[in-house]
From TrEMBL:
<dbReference type="Pfam" id="PF14122">
    <property type="entry name" value="YokU"/>
</dbReference>
<dbReference type="InterPro" id="IPR022453">
    <property type="entry name" value="Znf_MqsA-type"/>
</dbReference>
<protein>
    <recommendedName>
        <fullName>YokU family protein</fullName>
    </recommendedName>
</protein>
<dbReference type="InterPro" id="IPR022451">
    <property type="entry name" value="CHP03829_YokU"/>
</dbReference>
Length: 90
């Protein structure tokens, strides 16, 4: 796969841990087992833009007070939504 950073064809899919600040800025959480990529050429670990948008949307749509300090990606995405959609994204 082509790396989004160095553009070499040495990126591969991984499962990783990421840290995210909640939309209200009250705290950060650890999200484990998140899909991502690592490049064997430049060493960069990253998430695709769509996944970043999906996480940010989910954090806007759920009650973040119920989110644990550490949560798996699947658990986060399975949390029930209190809003239908992110009305700030056009």
């Amino acid at each position: 796969m082509r790396c989004e950073w160095c553009e070499e064809n040495k990126a591969r899919a991984i499962s990783c841990t990421v840290y995210w600040e909640l939309p209200d800025g009250s705290r950060a959480i650890e999200i484990t087992d998140a899909p991502g990529f690592v490049c064997d050429s430049c060493g960069m670990e990253y998430q695709e833009e769509q996944l970043i948008n999906d996480i940010e949307d989910q954090l806007l749509l759920i009650n973040v007070k119920l989110v644990e300090k550490s949560i798996t990606f699947k658990e986060l995405m399975a949390k029930p939504k209190t809003l239908k959609r992110n009305y700030f994204r056009f």
